[in-house]
Design a protein that fits this description.
11 helices; about 230 residues; single chain; globular; mainly alpha
């Protein structure tokens, strides 16, 4: 039987909250970027793709440090937000930003794969019939790339649940405030006698991730018309 402390339940709830928020914030931007690199031609397209995929090659700690420089009190964006009375660093919002940046390439890549599978003749037919680009986007591209959207959202959610390096840099490890499941596991592993609690949280993390992946698979199979 799994025994969890009240702080562990808080960490679990916060992890889910951060992951859901990161997906919700990133999805419109991820869809827009995937649309640009799939259906449009413009100068700097290769550079855009490189920048989008950069978080896949950088260590999460590096991403966290760069975000700290940007959002900290000495960063230009941090000073701007501070002047507006908005505090980001060492709050759960910083963890959301870290998860969104780290998981963004996975979301874009999945949505892009879904868009590349669309039959271009359908798009051409829509345009031939006089539909404006936004009508084609809403009635053709969006429905037919739904599988990629589901896959990208699932991947980012799962990646956000396991995010550690960037989160601990910009959000810290404050119990009840910014401590997520990975950070709580780190604390237990570093504490004498904390291995059973760390193992329990690992099991919880695996269970949540499996549930998300199973849900994603069921939605994908339903979308393909497979029983």
């Amino acid at each position: 039987m799994i025994t969890l402390a009240p702080a562990d339940y808080t960490a679990i709830g916060l992890s889910i909250k951060i992951a859901v928020t990161a997906v919700g914030i990133s999805l419109p931007f991820g869809f827009a970027v995937a649309y640009l690199v799939t259906f449009t031609r413009f100068r700097g397209k290769v550079l855009l793709e490189a920048v989008v995929n950069l978080p896949l090659t950088l260590p999460p700690v590096v991403i966290g440090y760069l975000l700290l420089l940007l959002l900290g009190r000495n960063g230009w964006l941090g000073r701007l937000l501070d002047g507006l009375g908005i505090r980001i660093i060492f709050t759960w919002k910083a963890a959301v930003i870290a998860c969104a940046v780290v998981g963004f390439p996975l979301m874009v890549r999945a949505i892009r794969i879904g868009m590349e599978a669309i039959d271009l003749r359908l798009i051409q037919a829509s345009r031939t019939l006089g539909a404006p680009w936004y009508d084609t986007l809403a009635s053709v591209i969006l429905p037919l790339s739904r599988r990629g959207v589901i896959a990208g959202s699932s991947l980012m959610f799962a990646r956000s649940l396991g995010e550690f390096g960037a989160t601990i840099i910009v959000a810290g490890n404050i119990p009840g405030v910014t401590q997520t499941i990975p950070l709580a596991i780190y604390d237990y592993v570093a504490s004498p006698g904390g291995e059973p609690m760390a193992a329990a949280l690992c099991l919880v993390s695996i269970t949540i991730s499996l549930a998300v992946l199973i849900l994603h698979e069921r939605l994908s199979r339903r979308d393909r018309g497979v029983a």
